[in-house]
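Researcher: We plan to redesign the surface later, but first we want a full-length starting point. Tokens attached.
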């Protein structure tokens, strides 16, 4: 009887890659060569041969197909098997069980990715290289990124600026840097902002080298704060200070700008060491003050609107963005205790130009010197609502001079410690100016039964220690 053929009698057919054997002169298939040796925990490669609702079958060259349950396909919480794999697709899977109680080979696609992903993420964290993943969830406080591992991207690190709606990133592939890694807790924290800032670093330097003071450039409003607005200049932000937004007074930048607005701005100054750019918006607009200088002369009469009433007078806008001061002594022929007795914000009045100070951009006006204009006196019940705005340091001569037909008006001395009577046109004594916050004419009048005395120098220049500032 012929003994059975042993493996030692078999020879691999040359050029068959081990798939054919020669035994006793016969060529036979080498079935053992088609079975891939592996152990539990190994990562194997196979081809998808069937897709069911709750599982996927994969041929890995074993005696039976491997089974990947739907829960082992992806790290996503909700999985559609037909979206995760395609028939014929080659996939990597980790061997969970070589043979379960039903004799099936159980595999996991997500765990194979997990192991490989951790090695890749650890290498990226060490080298500083970015990783790429798809946004699969929007959660409280940020985004979940599929890297083969669930990576967390905090909302504050999604972009350089705050992102109001994180849903717009859902499904996008984004590039991030690994900033925190803990394998034992499966914790991966990412930052997209770090990638963007690194990209912009080179852009900022190029922009700084290109920009020069005086250039007019276009940008987009990126943020608005109390003291101004920031403009994105394609990679670097410049600041428009609130004082450079408009030729007229601005209470808050949001009155004239909104985030996202595209604006033309002028480069005012560049600090290249600190990478700071100062911008101006009003410099790209017509200066209304120049229109005043070119159009009007001292003595001209024109119409305006009262914009603000203060303790020492009222401001009147004669052109958009141009205001002049009507001193309290120029409101009416008679003595005025409170400017609101004569004018209120919003009143339309005629004014006469007394002085145009081009260098300091100051405009001195008069209401009482407009021929034929007499404003009625109002009865006030509350005098505490007059705005206490600093004096402006206007020319004393302008308000001290009376019109030729104006007769001196006698009023009681209004400061308790003043006993001298001064001529109407005489300026106030320096010592008196230094001890009062406002001209004497603005203090409460003495009772009517006291002896009359001449009016103190109400028209004199406001106190010297007040701020020299006036809205233009």
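Model: Full-length starting sequence:
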């Amino acid at each position: 009887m012929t003994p059975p053929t042993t493996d030692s009698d078999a020879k691999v057919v040359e050029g068959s890659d081990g798939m054919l054997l020669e035994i006793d002169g016969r060529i036979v298939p080498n079935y053992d060569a088609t079975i891939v040796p592996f152990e539990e925990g190994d990562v194997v490669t196979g081809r998808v041969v069937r897709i069911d609702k709750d599982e996927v079958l994969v041929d890995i060259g074993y005696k039976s197909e491997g089974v990947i349950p739907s829960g082992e396909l992806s790290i996503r919480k909700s999985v559609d098997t037909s979206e995760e794999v395609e028939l014929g697709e080659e996939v990597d899977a980790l061997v969970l069980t070589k043979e379960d109680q039903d004799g099936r080979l159980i595999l996991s696609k997500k765990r194979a990715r997990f192991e490989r992903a951790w090695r890749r993420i650890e290498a990226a964290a060490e080298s500083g290289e970015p990783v790429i993943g798809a946004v699969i969830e929007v959660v409280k406080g940020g985004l979940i990124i599929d890297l083969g591992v669930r990576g967390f991207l905090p909302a504050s690190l999604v972009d350089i600026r705050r992102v109001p709606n994180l849903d717009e990133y859902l499904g996008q592939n984004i590039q991030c840097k690994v900033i925190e890694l803990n394998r034992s807790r499966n914790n991966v924290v990412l930052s997209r902002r770090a990638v963007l800032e690194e990209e912009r670093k080179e852009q900022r330097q190029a922009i700084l080298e290109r920009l020069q003071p005086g250039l007019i450039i276009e940008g987009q409003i990126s943020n608005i704060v109390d003291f101004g607005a920031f403009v994105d200049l394609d990679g670097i932000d410049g600041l428009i200070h609130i004082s450079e937004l408009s030729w007229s007074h601005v209470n808050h930048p949001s009155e004239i700008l909104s985030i996202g607005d595209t604006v033309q701005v002028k480069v005012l100054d560049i600090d290249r060491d600190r990478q700071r750019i100062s911008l101006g918006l009003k410099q790209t607009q017509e200066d209304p003050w120049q229109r005043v200088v070119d159009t009007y002369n001292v003595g001209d009469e024109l119409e305006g609107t009262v914009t603000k009433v203060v303790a020492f007078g009222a401001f009147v806008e004669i052109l958009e963005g141009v205001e002049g001061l009507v001193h309290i002594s120029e409101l009416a022929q008679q003595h005025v205790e409170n400017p609101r007795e004569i004018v209120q914000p919003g009143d339309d009045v005629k004014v006469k130009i007394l002085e145009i100070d081009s260098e300091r951009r100051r405009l001195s006006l008069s209401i009482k010197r407009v021929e034929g204009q007499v404003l009625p006196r109002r009865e006030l019940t509350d005098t505490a609502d007059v705005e206490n705005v600093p004096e402006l340091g206007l020319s004393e001569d302008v308000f001290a001079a009376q019109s030729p037909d104006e007769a001196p008006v006698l009023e009681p001395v209004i400061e308790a410690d003043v006993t001298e009577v001064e001529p109407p046109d005489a300026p106030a004594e320096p010592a008196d100016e230094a001890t009062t916050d406002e001209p004497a004419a603005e203090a409460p009048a003495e009772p009517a039964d006291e002896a009359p005395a001449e009016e103190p120098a109400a028209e004199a220049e406001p106190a010297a220690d007040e701020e020299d500032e006036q809205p233009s």
